[in-house]
TrEMBL record:
Name used for this protein in its record: Mitochondrial carrier protein
Bilayer topology: Multi-pass membrane protein
Subcellular location: Membrane; Plastid, Chloroplast membrane
Lineage: Eukaryota, Viridiplantae, Streptophyta, Embryophyta, Tracheophyta
GO biological process terms, semicolon-separated: transmembrane transport
Cited PANTHER family: S-ADENOSYLMETHIONINE MITOCHONDRIAL CARRIER PROTEIN
Family: Belongs to the mitochondrial carrier (TC 2.A.29) family.
Transmembrane segments: 13-31, 52-71, 91-110
Length: 288
């Protein structure tokens, strides 16, 4: 017997995703900036700690719709796959739903990530200026620099993180025989985020290098980037920024899933409250 609760209304999922994504981005942006600068630095270069919120507002303009799109796609796809797959393949359903939602939302997420990381490394002062200069120098496809590496990192990331989270929730609910409370959702989210963040750090390093290189084209692609890093800096560079990344994504997972579940719950209760308020009126009309 499946342990999933009834599917979330798509609009509720999208709203909850936007709220959760916005909260996480606002709270943890400085850690992400430090991580990006660590990964972008070559050799023993100094890490600048000024302007840790550089590009936040411009990034939120992309994060909100991207997060809404991700969860808005994930919830109905997950529901459909869970109905289609046998019970013992629920993990595959969650993996697939996460990957599909990640692929769809990448249309918005990649340009947002490119602009954010260029600003975090001090290349541009504002998001509008970054977009204008990237397009004028590199063309529209400059906004999708490192798209392949982004998918290489984020599709496994989304699939693994949501699979771990959903499977842990299902197991916990079976053991506890009740719905999870807010702290429990947050703790499971932190665990899922930290594990996924650590596993995907090498992919994140490659993605960062490709996205920030701009028109210099230091690397010709993913394979060339890997070879160049191995040759010039050593394999240890693939774990550069793993501390901030695990911290950032672990805390981020806690906040994101905690806020996501709470927002979905509030929206669902609000919708039920509206229906309950409407019912007496309907009954009075019927009796007339």
């Amino acid at each position: 017997m499946k342990t999933e609760t009834p599917g979330t209304v798509p609009a509720d999922g999208a709203i909850a995703g936007a709220v959760a994504g916005g909260v996480v981005e606002s709270v943890l942006y400085p850690i992400d900036t430090i991580k990006t600068r660590l990964q972008a630095a070559h050799g023993g270069g100094k890490i600048v700690l000024k302007g840790l919120y550089s590009g936040l507002y411009g990034n939120l303009a992309g994060v909100l719709p991207a997060s809404a799109l991700f969860v808005g796609v994930y919830e109905p796809v997950k529901k459909k796959l869970l109905e289609t797959f046998p019970d013992n393949l629920s993990a595959l359903a969650h993996l697939s739903a996460g990957a599909i939602a990640g692929a769809v939302s990448s249309i918005v997420r990649v340009p947002t990530e490119v602009v954010k990381q260029r600003m975090q490394t001090g290349q541009f002062a504002t998001a509008p200026n970054a977009v204008h200069m990237i397009i004028s120098r590199e063309g529209f496809r400059g906004l999708y620099a490192g798209y392949g590496s982004f998918l290489l990192r984020d599709l496994p990331f989304d699939a693994i993180q949501f699979c771990i989270y959903e499977q842990l929730r299902m197991g916990y609910k079976l053991a506890a025989r009740r719905e999870l409370n807010d702290p429990e959702n947050a703790i499971i989210g932190a665990f899922a985020g930290a594990i996924t963040g650590a596993v995907t750090t090498p992919l994140d390093v490659i993605k960062t290098r490709l996205m920030i290189q701009g028109s210099t084209k230091q690397y010709k692609g993913i394979c060339d980037c890997v070879r160049a890093i191995m040759r010039e800096e050593g394999s240890h560079v693939f774990l550069k920024g793993i501390g901030p990344r695990v911290l950032w994504i672990g805390i981020g997972g806690s906040i994101f899933f905690g806020v996501l579940e709470k927002t979905k719950q509030v929206l669902s209760q609000g919708r039920m409250g509206i229906r309950n308020c409407d019912s007496p009126n309907e009954n009075r009309i019927d009796r007339k």
